[in-house]
From TrEMBL:
Keyword Transcription: yes
Lineage: Bacteria, Bacillati, Actinomycetota, Actinomycetes, Pseudonocardiales
Natural source organism: Amycolatopsis thermalba
Domain HTH tetR-type, residue spans: 12-72
InterPro entries with a match to the protein in the record: Homeodomain-like_sf, HTH-type_TetR-like_transc_reg, HTH_TetR, MT1864/Rv1816-like_C, Tet_transcr_reg_TetR-rel_C_sf
Keyword field: DNA-binding, Transcription, Transcription regulation
Protein name: WHG domain-containing protein
Residue ranges of the annotated DNA-binding region, renumbered to this chain: 35-54
Domain of life: Bacteria
Keyword Transcription (UniProt): yes
């Protein structure tokens, strides 16, 4: 393998410095503090010099977001690596790990899961959806769900119980889900991923994400003296609805 040139080594090191500085600003001051000017000031260089590596602030923030997502996925992967090869056990461990990470990494959570990237209310522009299923966190979450669906007889609503208005969106999303499951090595029968199953997966994520978001931003309707118990109750409810035990 050819050794990298001196210029290449400097470029890689500089890029690493930029992203490390962007992460530091994110953690200490929040997403709005991550600007090219602020990063340049921290590094002692001029802002235009950063355009060698990133075409815009949005470009830099997207790379930063991917770094955060990859770190989250790696952390959760390590957490479940010692657990039984059981989809239910792993899925609910991921849910608990996601909540714990969100509560201890609030600035990163805000950037990745609570920063709209499109018009208000547009599904395609919200990073809070699972429309980024092929990214590390989406893959780990959906892979565990795939193991669960493939190996358990769940209580799934029939297609006619799914709102007609959602059919087209859910059908389009099925292809993404199947691709992720195949890439992750899950032996998943495509016929099991019907509209009812897809609907349950989206509802599961929406309720999990909604609960965690309320906690992170302190917007739960009433003060909760035992928030862990409230979250465990949510998981128990979600599990019960599909015929599982979340304990």
């Amino acid at each position: 393998m050819d050794k990298p040139t001196r210029r290449g080594r400097e470029r890689a090191a500089t890029d690493q410095d930029i992203r490390r500085t962007a992460r530091k600003l994110l953690v200490e001051r929040g997403p709005e503090a991550v600007t090219l000017r602020a990063i340049a000031r921290e590094l002692g260089i001029t802002a235009p010099a950063l355009y060698r590596y990133y075409g815009s602030r949005d470009d830099l923030v997207e790379h930063l977001r991917l770094d955060v997502v990859a770190d989250l996925a790696a952390e959760l992967t390590e957490e479940i690596s010692g657990l039984p090869d059981d989809g239910a056990v792993q899925l609910f461990a991921i849910c608990r790990g996601f909540r714990r990470w969100a509560l201890t990494h609030t600035k990163e959570f805000t950037l990745v899961f609570a920063s709209p990237t499109g018009e208000v209310g547009s599904a395609a522009g919200s990073v809070a959806t699972l429309n980024r299923a092929n990214e590390p966190f989406g893959r780990i979450f959906l892979t565990a769900a795939g193991h669960l669906l493939a190996n358990f007889q769940l209580e799934i609503p029939p297609t006619e119980a799914v709102p007609v208005e959602l059919h087209d969106d859910l059908t389009a999303f099925q292809d993404d889900l199947l691709a992720v499951l195949r890439e992750s090595g899950v032996d998943f029968p495509p016929e099991k991923l019907d509209l009812g199953t897809t609907y349950v997966m989206i509802q599961f994520w929406a309720r999990l994400y909604g609960h965690v978001t309320l906690e992170v931003f302190g917007n739960y309707p009433i003060p909760m003296s035992k928030p862990d118990a409230v979250f465990d109750a949510l998981l128990a409810d979600l599990a019960r609805e599909i015929g599982l035990d979340a304990s």
